[in-house]
Design brief:
Blueprint (H helix, E strand, L loop, with lengths): L12 E4 L3 H13 L3 E4 L4 E3 L5 H8 L6 E4 L2 H14 L7 E4 L2 H9 L6 E2 L5 H12 L3 E7 L5 H8 L3 E11 L6 H8 L5 E4 L2 H11 L3 H5 L4 E4 L2 H9 L6 E2 L5 H14 L8
Helix pairs in contact: 1-11, 3-4, 5-6, 8-10
């Protein structure tokens, strides 16, 4: 990680769109680097409307050979539901999509046996493909995640129980003051850590507004999945983290301004 002692982001105003319960690490790092943070939570997370499929899977947790966690939220909601229904976190083997998810799993008492080399769900499936053939796999996920990972695992011979562990939702009342500051390009960078956060903010501002703002505001994506969603919507991605983590995203922002020192908000 880049040395923050010289405050490389001093004077930069950065919009953080992560949910409050997930934004702490990123905000701490950016503030330590001198940035002024503008919170704009554009995504939230809730338990499934119907928890029965998740409860059935958790009740049979001992029968699974592997549990694959593709997000910190999957870890959080599995651990929460286990606590709510009074079951221990007994899992044979756990795989995580990246170091942040692995750390979240460890904090919840899960022993992590494998972390994907490339921190995305596709790589996780490819790297474990042979190991999971014939194995029973539990895949707790967001309602927005789709079945691509489960399909890839099944094609490799795994027996997959694919269950919605949490819902991704948009905040009901976005902060209009912050939206106006974004519309007026009164910020330097807006960071997105998920496609949902991007799409929700795009909806709050109005279709096409983010694409227009790309001429005056830098947009940062935590990884390739988020960057792809932004580009497909016609929005320029100025900054993309090499490592999908809070530290990786902060370092990418610093690197961008080191290479483009004139790309700053007009004071």
């Amino acid at each position: 990680m880049i040395d923050a002692s010289e405050k490389p982001l001093a004077g930069k105003r950065i919009v953080v769109t992560r949910a409050p319960e997930q934004a702490g690490e990123l905000i701490h790092i950016l503030e330590h680097m001198g940035a002024e943070i503008v919170p704009m939570p554009s995504v939230g997370f809730e338990s499934p409307e119907d928890s029965q499929p998740l409860d059935r899977a958790l009740g049979a947790l001992r029968s699974f050979d592997w549990v694959l966690f593709t997000s910190q939220n999957a870890v959080r909601f599995v651990a929460l539901r286990l606590e709510q229904i009074g079951l221990p976190p007994t899992i044979r083997q756990v795989a995580a999509v990246g170091p942040s998810t692995a750390e979240a799993a460890k904090l919840q008492g899960f022993h992590v046996d494998y972390v994907a080399t490339n921190h995305n769900a596709h790589s996780l499936a490819q790297e474990l493909r042979d190991s999971l053939a014939g194995k029973k796999v539990f895949l707790p996920r967001s309602d927005r995640a789709g079945n691509h990972l489960a399909t890839a695992l099944r094609e490799g011979g795994a027996q997959v129980t694919d269950v919605v562990a949490y819902r991704t939702v948009a905040p009901e009342a976005p902060d209009q003051v912050v939206l106006d500051r974004i519309r007026g390009a009164e910020v330097d960078v807006t960071v997105f850590a998920s496609p949902s956060a991007f799409h929700n903010l795009d909806g709050f501002l109005g279709s096409g507004e983010l694409a227009k703002l790309a001429e005056r505001v830098q947009f940062a994506a935590i990884g390739p999945t988020t960057a792809k969603a932004m580009r497909e919507a016609g929005v320029r991605v100025h900054i993309e983290a090499e490592e999908a983590s809070a530290a990786g995203l902060a370092d990418a922002i610093v690197k961008y301004y080191h290479e483009h020192p004139t790309h700053s908000r007009q004071q």
